Amino acid sequence: MPVIGMNLTKVEFEKRGAPIPGMRIEVNLTPNVRDMRLGEIRSPTGKMKGVEILFKYEINYRPEIAEGRVEGAIMYLPARKEDIDRILDEWDAEKKVRPDVFAEMVNFITSEISPLLFVLAKEMRLPYHIPLPRVELKQGPQVSGG
């Protein structure tokens, strides 16, 4: 089982300047694990133990026209219960997250907070954090209707 839930605890976004038309703007997304601990969730079938991952997701614009961050927690349930202890032991010893857990965490968080980031960017008149698809017309022979 993968990530089964998320709880946001902090959302901050600050605009520092207006983008200049035609200026190239980069948006960097930086997910970080702040802490990992044993977590528990109640379900209709009883209590389930998992890994609670506290995260901070930073959004930085270059040039520095804005910055933001989203903090929260997710509940991660590994496929095997014995992996819970292994994941937490590795975190306690080295402050490292297994690549497969980190990838699943980042993909889940990104998909969950992207709608919020779109709304914030729109309301603050900032470029979106990911490019939107655009329709472009191809130059070719003109076809007239009739």
Determine the N-to-C terminus distance: 58 Å
| Number of helices, where a helix is a run of at least 4 consecutive DSSP H or I residues | 2
Strand content: 35-45%
Contiguous runs where pLDDT drops below 50 for at least 5 residues: none
Structural class: alpha+beta
What would you report as the Rg, rounded to the nearest angstrom? 21 Å
As laid out across the biggest beta sheet, the strand order is 1-4-3-2
DSSP E strands, number? 4
DSSP helix fraction: 25-40%
Describe this structure in words.
There is one protein chain. The chain is α+β, with helices and mostly antiparallel strands and 146 residues long. It is 26% helix and 40% strand. It has a four-stranded antiparallel sheet. The N and C termini lie far apart (58 Å).
Summarize the structure.
With 146 residues, this protein is of the alpha+beta class. It contains two helices and four strands.
Throw out a few tags for this protein.
146 residues, alpha+beta, 2 helices, 26% helix
